[in-house]
Design goal:
disordered N terminus; single chain; mainly alpha; 9 helices
């Protein structure tokens, strides 16, 4: 009877380690892979469900400028809603983490992850609301979640990792490839690539793409309901620590 009990407890202990306050490079990397997969799935799925990507704000900032010049009020309002929701999500994540830290709450990262899981479950109901209202609700909800997730992993990893957008990671991959090329062409330069960093970056980008493939297929088949298994992953990571607290 002991072996099954240990088997059941092992995932719970692993979840507590991943969101615990005592961090290591390994736990940061493991959590970053999970969140990158979810971000890729939600981002690609959001495009299927909403016709818009929601994990990065560059396009929305461009929409603000274009809409101001073109006088497209509806597009301007939608872009501002997406940006403000993303910022609000990041702000709330930071608020919750700092509040928990000030209260000496050991499982401080579990709170924002649990809230993100709950909001993803709420996002799954976005298909119930039809028309412009439903579209705006789903857009604001998903951008809010993406802002929370990016801020959470940024706080956890001390700004070493961000998971909801790949531009920075792809840029860093290019930098490391350039360093490797410099070392090969000019052996005496002393410049070489950080292979460990490059491996981490390639893994996270690959995980984001894999999540996008799964998310695109899932949302194409199930629509908004595909958010439920993504929500279950986040709740599975966070709830064991919250119950322990």
């Amino acid at each position: 009877m002991i072996a099954p009990h240990r088997h059941i407890r092992r995932p719970i202990i692993s979840a507590r380690v991943l969101v615990g306050h005592r961090r290591s490079a390994g736990s940061d990397f493991a959590l970053a892979r999970i969140l990158a997969f979810i971000a890729g799935a939600a981002n690609a799925g959001g495009f299927f469900a909403l016709g818009q990507y929601t994990s990065h704000m560059t396009g929305y900032l461009s929409q603000v400028a274009d809409s101001l010049i073109g006088g497209r009020v509806v597009v301007l309002g939608s872009a501002l809603l997406a940006i403000s929701s993303f910022v609000a999500g990041a702000a709330l994540s930071s608020l919750l983490i700092n509040w928990a830290r000030s209260r000496k709450f050991r499982e401080l990262y579990a709170i924002p992850l649990a809230l993100q899981g709950f909001l993803l479950a709420c996002f799954s109901t976005g298909g119930i609301l039809s028309g412009p209202v439903g579209h705006l609700f789903a857009l604001a909800c998903l951008c809010f979640i993406m802002g929370m997730q990016n801020a959470t992993i940024t706080k956890i990893s001390y700004a070493r990792v961000r998971t909801t957008h790949a531009t920075g990671m792809v840029t860093d991959i290019g930098i490391e490839c350039g360093r490797a090329l410099c070392g090969a062409v000019f052996p005496g330069s002393g410049v070489s690539a950080d292979r460990a960093k490059l491996r981490i970056l390639l893994t996270l980008v690959g995980t984001f793409v894999l999540g996008g493939i799964v998310g695109a297929a899932g949302y194409a088949a199930l629509g908004f309901l595909f958010s439920l298994p993504l929500a279950a992953v986040l709740l599975g990571l966070s709830v064991p620590s919250l119950l322990r607290a």
